[in-house]
Amino acid sequence: MARAEARRRGRSDIGFSVADAHALPFPDDTFDVVHAHQVLQHVGDPVLALREMRRVCRPGGIVAVRDSDYAAFTWFPEIPELDEWLDLYRRVARACGGEPDAGRRLLSWAHTAGFTDVSATSSTWCFATPEDRAWWGGMWAERVLKSDMARLALASGGATEGDLRRLSEGWRAWAGERDGWLSLLHGELICRV
Hints:
Blueprint: H1 3-8, E1 31-37, H2 46-56, E2 57-68, E3 74-76, H3 80-95, H4 106-112, E4 117-127, H5 130-145, H6 148-156, H7 161-176, E5 181-192
Helix pairs in contact: 3-7, 5-7
């Protein structure tokens, strides 16, 4: 159903599209809300991405973004392999043109992109239950071995296969700790257009 018809009938028109954040394939003033969750940390030019998000958001609409700040990740118990993982992740992300500490930069990027009405906040995720630790630790144990991050770490000489296996085991060890706890900081913005 066309957007105008959906609005006339009182229905929302919600969809999902995959596109280049630097060159969105939508006309100006298309959307009421434009949202990016954990995206800007991965793009080469987050300011341009925010400008594009603003361009496709109608006047009176909202651009909302949320990104992690990897330098602010903290955990217990202190497992050396997790320190090594964090260092490796940040190096690989930056080598790919990303910014893993995006959360703290969001407000600056929004101002540079031309937003003037911006509310900046933060929130955290916490993984402390056995189920949460199993999910988060298991996810990273696999990603360390089988992901673009792993391939790039190996290709760049940033890590060996043995290093990656050791980091993966570090994640599994953390996940198995009865007192294991991990918190992640996120920067958040609501930008009014």
